[in-house]
Amino acid sequence: MAVIKANAYGHGLVPTALALEAADALAVARLAEALTVREAGVRTPLVLLEGVFTSEEMDAAARLGLQLVVHSPGQLDLLAAWSGSYRFSIWVKVDTGMNRLGFRVEEFAAVWERVNSLRSVAARPRFMTHLAAADEPDSELTRLQLERARRLITASGAEASLANSAGLIAWREARADWVRPGLMLYGMSPFADRAGRQHGLEPAMTLRTQLIAVRDLAAGETVGYGASWRAERPARIGIAAIGYGDGYPRHLGSGTPVLVNDRSAALVGRVSMDMIAVDVTALDAAPGDEVVLWGRGLPVERVAACAGTIPYELVCGISQRVAIDWR
Ligand SMILES: *Cc1c(COP(=O)(O)O)cnc(C)c1O
Which DSSP category does 64 fall into? Predict the structure, then answer.
């Protein structure tokens, strides 16, 4: 089940859905995302990870032929009240320890009996749970979650899905019938101390722009808003056309790595809305030169560490005005 929520982690929902059309299923978080995927002509089984919350959303889900995750009593009531002819394929989500969505382990037997008695539910409902700490080696919680899940799967005989990317890579016992990779599909690592490369993955996204100006600074001159960076000696600065308006985080500091013509350089001064400054003193740089912010040659995992965040947030934060070039 290929997870393409959040604009396919910033990669573009429709082109990604088309590229992954052959998956056994696709998964999105919101109904609006499912609508976009269906309007693009993608007929692949499509799972709504948060399910529906109103009868209007049920109608839409039926029209779009969606599979629903069912995680709450309210959603069971919606299914019980459904009078249409569509039969929903559902995933009963159990909270085995994440404490976010799902029925409690003790409730499962009753919920399972109820869904199997509902006319609105297609044959063979499935089991789903989500791991809270699969990215931590030797996580006691993960062991506990897997053990709880295993018991319920055995009792119900249901097809099951337990693993996100981290679970899939690091916990063999979590693989089950279905896996739900998101981040790793796009070539990134869910582990804090690794990059996609170390799992044999290549980044799908390279965020690039170009230099639109180059200027020479005398020692003592400063760059950008707040004059936060000062040249200690004569320096050459390249101005690249990217900024926080594109999703390049404003709080990245001087020293953050960037590539100019495939060579290492460093961000200097504050990130503006539309521009950044790069120290190109040691390079032979000119306007028009390519600047890579992350991706091929510069793992987004490394930039995420500089930003004090995770690669998920950086790629999801790519804004609308960034053109996606599917070469
Ligand atoms: C987002 C999500 C995934 C994918 O997680 P990754 O860490 O990106 O692999 C899987 N399952 C559920 C329920 C999710 O919400």
Answer: H
Q: Where are the alpha helices (DSSP H) in 50-135?
A: 55-64, 73-81, 108-117
Return the residue whose CA atom lies nearest to atom 15 of ligand 1.
49
Q: Please write the tens of the pLDDT for every residue from 298-316.
A: 999 999 999 999 999 999 9
Query: Would you call 5 a catalytic residue per the annotation?
Result: yes
Cα 93 to Cα 96, 174, 182, 277, distances in angstroms: 9, 15, 18, 47
Give residue 78's region: left, alpha or beta (phi > 0; psi -120 to 50).
alpha
Give backbone dihedrals phi and psi of 225, rounded to 5 degrees, phi first. -55, 135
Do residues 134 and 163 touch, judged by C-beta distance below 8 A? yes
Cα distance between residue 38 and residue 35, in whole Å:
5
DSSP state, 240?
E
**Cβ-proximal residues to 202 (8 Å cutoff; 6+ apart), any chain:** 187, 196, 296
What 8-state DSSP symbol labels residue 191?
S
Q: Report whether pLDDT(137) > 90.
A: no
pTM of the model: 0.96
Summarised one tens digit per residue, pLDDT across range 199-235 is 999 999 999 999 999 999 999 999 999 999 999 999 9
Q: Which of 209, 227, 237, 225 is nearest to 323 (CA)?
A: 209
Nearest alpha-carbon partner for 244 in 327, 321, 166, 130: 321
The ligand 1 atom nearest the CA atom of 312: 8
Classify the phi-psi angles of 51: left when phi > 0, otherwise alpha if psi is within -120 to 50, otherwise beta.
Answer: left
Buried b (16+ CB within 10 A) or exposed e, 153-169: beebebebbbbbbbbbb
Q: How far is the CA of 245 from the centre of ligand 1 (A)?
A: 26
Ligand 1: distance of its center to the CA of 286 in Å?
Answer: 42
**pLDDT tens for each residue of 48-63:** 999 999 999 999 999 9
